[in-house]
Design a protein that fits this description.
The chain has 702 residues and is α/β, with parallel strands linked by helices. It contains 26 helices and 27 strands. The longest helix is centred in the N-terminal third of the chain and has 19 residues. The N terminus is likely disordered.
Length: 702
């Protein structure tokens, strides 16, 4: 593989290859190999030795060098000189920027208390160091407001936890042993491409591959069958399948008796969900539901892959919970490759408390990131306490990705809001900042990663010197702490110390995952059996030790303790009048070349996408006079945006798909789909409801 390089200091000339990790919010967490010549990265590829990466990268990360050396890369600190939102800045030194930021933050604390400071970050990097180490220590020490990071995964994670105990499921490396594969609410070829070879291995042995999705995605086109479901009704389909399983005697009575709690109550609940009822709710024909359930029940080792898209509606947590009950009914957990997978993340047990130091400061209020618009525009931040007077954004672009963008932009425009953004580029959010600080990319810093689609921990080694004056997030927060006069010893830990602290775990899964092992190989598998079937003998990490069809914890939280269907906020069951005004459901999942708002500014990727568009079914387009290629406006009470229409039957009737997430400034009309999404949250976990969104589509005047 060549020469492994040490940490490179600015100005060092080095040649060789360096092992690293893809930092982006994707289950695959690819192992990278970067080739460096004379201090410049010249090639990036997937590690061919990694059992899941297998030497290939996605369309996005294949362009990572272009992102690193992009002509618009931020390379020095900047201070605003124009009006907020204009994006006009002047260059300043690090010392000048940090001194002034510290002064402004001290003024906020003196005038309003530390909770008036709000950090806002998410998964711009999934690395523990640059994503959640020195930053957490800084804000915890200050006593700043805590951020509930809910925008993506919390609903489904809570659904899994209430059912099987942890967000732990079937092992990717065993999927080839499945005899039926259900890709449920997941566009695998775009959002999880390194699972696909394992799916193909199962298919080669005879396993049918079925996609359940409102959109005939590029994944659905490669499957043996596409079942177009009405958005937000996945729990109803699962309940209808349960009805058939019990009615046809396809359940595993032994597994139910030994390893589940509440089987009799679940059987009664399933009896209520006739195939006719499930069909009326989901929009799927009765014959298709019955056929799916029978095939699932007759399979010995069925694998269900669910992804986070299907939980972005009012009942998202309960939907994942309900689907997660299926393999316990049929006993598919017994064999490797069987079961359900939302994530593998909770098999990892890094020492997060050592990184975060939650004990570093006083308790503070928590603000749900989904409600950023309210937090910035309501006097009590929508949750009580002082108004938000300072916002520090890193690893996220809320000016493009947050729901209810019009409210978010009104908040960012406040003259009394002091905003600091750590970034690689001048994003939509950076345009509103008072200071923009240049951060390093993955090729320029140390980090360590878990995965939520496999079981390998990965070390990221810096391959090149930081571009310009860019600094790692860890170093920016160290320097900011010093400027604030914070002298606690935890701010003196360097990045290698942080990695060792993260790996200092007594959990048996982490045995053998050491810094030395990671340095030698680049990645190390968790201490788990091969093959890995987590619930073959039960042993669920729930209070009862069983798969909890009946959850006393949910009952105590005020929820139905059994799997149930919770209809969308914006649907005919709850609000038929709203649906009459806004009859189409908008799905705004990322375009194949984008990862949320990341990579939108990489020229070849944006050219590949072309322009913002929507896909609308011919039966919905015809009465609206819409033809392919026409510019249309998508609108509701929250906002509007314009796109070019593509009319085809690759979405179900009543659904519009607008691949996102475009930067506003790179969209022809300066807007994107999140102008129309709401700040409402899911049933469990307080997650985002991006796809619980009714709109109308009409020809645009623009």
């Amino acid at each position: 593989m060549g020469t492994t390089l040490p940490l490179i200091d600015a100005g060092t000339v080095a040649t060789g290859t360096v092992r690293g990790a893809c930092p982006h919010d994707c289950p695959d967490t690819c192992a990278l190999v970067t080739t460096v010549e004379n201090g410049r990265a010249v090639r990036i590829q997937g590690d061919p030795e990694h059992p899941v990466t297998r030497g290939f990268l996605c369309a996005k990360v294949n362009r990572y060098l272009e992102r690193t050396y992009h002509h618009d890369r931020l390379t020095y600190p900047m201070r605003r000189v124009g009006r907020k939102g204009e994006g006009r800045f002047e260059r300043v030194s690090w010392d000048e920027a940090l001194a002034d930021i510290a002064r402004r933050l001290r003024e906020v604390i003196a005038g309003h208390g530390p909770e008036a400071i709000l950090p806002y970050s998410y998964a711009g990097t999934m690395g523990y160091l640059q994503g959640e180490s020195m930053d957490r220590r800084f804000f915890h020490t200050l006593g700043a407001s805590r951020l509930d990071r809910t925008i993506c995964s919390t609903a489904g994670s809570m659904g899994m936890r209430m059912t099987v105990g942890l967000n732990v499921g079937a092992d990717t490396e065993s999927v080839g042993e499945a005899d039926l594969v259900l890709l449920w609410g997941t566009n695998t070829l775009t959002a999880n491409p390194h699972l696909w070879p394992f799916v193909l291995a199962a298919r080669e042995k005879g396993a049918p591959v079925i996609c359940i999705d409102p959109i005939r995605t590029r994944t659905a086109r490669q499957c043996d069958e596409w079942i177009p479901i009405r958005p937000g009704t996945d729990a109803a389909l699962a309940l209808g399948m349960m009805h058939v399983l019990f009615a046809e005697g396809l359940q595993d009575d032994d597994y139910l008796a030994r390893h589940t709690l509440g089987a009799d109550q679940l059987r009664q609940r399933a009896a209520e969900w006739t195939v006719e009822r499930a069909a009326a709710t989901t929009g799927i024909p009765e014959t298709a539901i019955r056929s799916l359930a029978v095939r699932y029940g007759r399979a010995r080792t069925a694998f269900i892959r669910v992804n986070y898209g299907l939980q972005r509606h009012a009942g998202g947590g309960m939907a994942v919970r309900t689907i997660a009950c299926l393999p316990a009914i049929t006993g598919h957990w017994r064999r490797p490759g069987g079961g359900v997978q939302l994530s593998t993340s909770k098999n990892f047990a890094f020492n997060v408390a050592a990184l975060h130091r939650p004990d570093a400061g006083p308790p503070a209020r928590t603000i749900n990131m989904v409600r950023l618009g309210d937090a910035l525009t309501l006097p009590d931040a929508g949750v009580g306490g002082p108004p938000v007077k300072a916002l520090v954004v890193y690893n996220s672009n809320p000016g493009a990705v947050a729901p209810d963008l019009n409210a978010v932009h009104r908040g960012l425009a406040r003259e009394d809001l002091f905003t600091v953004v750590l970034e690689h580029f001048q994003t939509d959010t950076a345009d509103w900042a008072d200071y923009v600080l240049p951060a390093t990319t993955q090729l320029e810093h140390w980090d360590v990663h878990l995965a939520y689609g496999h079981h390998y921990a990965t070390l990221n080694r810096p391959a090149i010197a930081p571009v310009g004056e860019a600094l790692p997030n860890t170093e920016i927060f160290r320097r900011l702490a010093a400027a604030m006069g914070l002298t606690q010893e935890w701010f003196r830990d360097d990045d290698l110390t942080l990695i060792r602290q993260a790996l200092d775990s007594a959990h048996p899964n982490m045995r053998g995952v050491t810094f030395d092992a990671l340095l030698e190989r680049g990645w190390v598998r968790l201490n788990l059996p091969r093959p890995f079937a987590p619930y073959a003998e039960g042993n669920f990490p729930t209070p009862s030790g069983k798969c909890e069809f009946y959850s006393e914890r949910l009952a105590q939280m005020g929820f139905d303790p059994l799997p149930t269907y919770i209809p969308p906020y914006e649907g005919p069951e709850r609000d038929p009048a709203l649906v009459a005004r806004w009859p189409l459901t908008l799905i705004s999942s990322p375009a194949h070349q984008f990862l949320n708002s990341s990579f939108v500014n990489v020229d070849p990727l944006r050219r590949a996408v072309g322009q913002p568009e929507c896909v609308i079914h011919p039966d919905d387009a015809a009465p609206r006079g819409i033809r392919t290629g026409q510019r249309v406006e998508i609108r509701n009470d929250r906002g509007t945006f314009t796109v070019v229409a593509r009319v085809e039957a690759t979405v179900r009737r009543g659904v519009v798909w607008a691949p996102s997430v475009w930067w506003n400034k790179l969209s022809p009309d300066g807007r994107n789909a999140n102008q129309t999404t709401s700040q409402r949250v899911t049933d469990l976990g307080g997650g985002a409801t991006f796809y619980d969104n009714q709109v109308e589509v009409g020809l645009s005047d623009e």
